[in-house]
Amino acid sequence: MTDWLTGFQFRKSHLILGAYKGFADFPICIKIYYGTGTDGTEKVDHLTDYWGDYNTWAGKVYCSSHCKTDFSDLRFTDNYGTTKLNYWIQEKVDGDYAIVWIKVTDDLSTDTTIFVYYGNESASSESDGDGVFLLFDDFDDGIFDTDKWIVSGTYTESGGLLTLAAGAYIQSKSTWFKEVIVFMKAKFSQANGFIGLCKTTGGTDDAAFFRGEASTIKSRVQRDSNYETGTVGAYQGNFWKFALKWLSEYPETHSSYNSVQFFVDSVGKEWHANNSPNELIPVTNNAIGAGSLIFDWIAVRKVAPAGEEPVHSTWGEEEEIPITHITIGTLACNAISWSEGQSCDPVIRQVPLSSDGEFVDTGTFVIDNRKLTITIRLTDTQKDTLNNIFNANAIVTITAKTEDASYPRWVYKGWLSRILNEYSYSKEGSDEREWEVELEFYCSSFEYEVNPSP
């Protein structure tokens, strides 16, 4: 079996067929569903061609409710199973779906396989658009990135949005020449203004952009002083996903063909082959007029010369890591509680407990979904110490020891809960207050004993 990414319970393999003039570090798109269904492909955003589909739809896969509802435990690897690939979650609806872009490091001029991993309750999201695209900005940190953009005029970056006031513009410091797709989630709140590619900030010279005019959005391409326009539609006043696909070859025939395709969400709106730009040009967005332009995110990605994407082919069956049990032996320091300030390691014991709160040593556990829950009970002082660790969000290692304290064994892989719950009980006339926190063991690919012989 291919090596497994540590900490994840489930995975599926996915075969991707190479693209004409494909390349390494090619971004691909997969729509991932939380529930159940039939894996395959689905139409997403600009992943189609103005004239037809050309097998460029996104991949589609279902996690059968085995991933976290917020999709923060998604991971992607190359065909070896453990080398992680950069990804970015473009959008998601918790408990329903996530649209994800993954940068495949293998050369996609030939077929390759990747893995999708999920099923890790302690995982946090590693979504990072900067690691996937040629240019990316989601304006989430409230700090305008002057390493990426030149800016003029009044602007604000707040709440995950960049707003350009009337007369303001931004222009990327990087430039591109064909074989790119510029896509962004943006809102025109005015009659004028343009978004896309433009050599100058005023919308002249070599350019390809969406332009707001009166009650409609138009497409425009320009080479030198020659230009042509087309009608895109009434897409003002709300957020839409706008995309420009700038190509140097005609699909299928692959003949030389400088053209720009315009998309809104997943629908091709205009195509221009005459007067398409023919110079290195940056991303330029200008709020000309009396209104404003608002951006949720902006991205630029490389594409093959004819715009043909790698083909999402077959999906493998869901695989689950194949271990089902763990052995727990007698633990040292298995007293029930301590007096305030008493010196003792925190007690670790298995659950359930007997009716009078005594430690229950049941030997071998059969793990349900490969998870074993244990409980640590603490005095007030120890509770405060552990709370400080929680608040610092530190990585905590818990060890259980055999009677030979010099022979510790690692047993812990993640917190089940960071909430300390008060626990009180009476025993032999005493009423002692304690605190408890639950932890969860995740088996990987081995059986484990706490107290084997040295």
Description:
It is a single chain. By secondary structure, the chain is an all-beta fold. The chain has one helix and 34 strands. It folds into three domains: 1-132 and 309-318, no CATH class; 135-173 and 180-302, Sandwich (Jelly Rolls), CATH 2.60.120.200; 325-442, no CATH class. It has one helix at 380-391, and strands at 10-17, 26-33, 40-42, 58-62, 75-77, 87-93, 97-104, 112-118, 135-137, 149-152, 155-158, 161-164, 169-172, 180-188, 194-198, 207-213, 216-223, 226-233, 240-249, 256-264, 267-272, 283-286, 293-302, 311-315, 319-320, 325-327, 347-350, 364-366, 371-378, 399-401, 408-410, 414-415, 421-427, 430-442. Strands 9, 11, 12, 14, 19, 20, 21 and 23 form an eight-stranded antiparallel sheet that branches.
Summarize the structure.
The protein has one helix at residues 380-391, and strands at 10-17, 26-33, 40-42, 58-62, 75-77, 87-93, 97-104, 112-118, 135-137, 149-152, 155-158, 161-164, 169-172, 180-188, 194-198, 207-213, 216-223, 226-233, 240-249, 256-264, 267-272, 283-286, 293-302, 311-315, 319-320, 325-327, 347-350, 364-366, 371-378, 399-401, 408-410, 414-415, 421-427, 430-442.
**What is the arithmetic mean of pLDDT?**
74
Q: Identify the CATH architecture of the largest domain.
A: Sandwich
Tell me how many strands there are. 34
Which CATH top level class of the largest domain fits?
A: Mainly Beta
Structural class: mainly beta
CATH topology name of the largest domain: Jelly Rolls
Shape: globular
Give the biggest sheet: 8 strands, antiparallel
Number of domains as seen in the coordinates: 3
Secondary structure: helix percent: under 10%
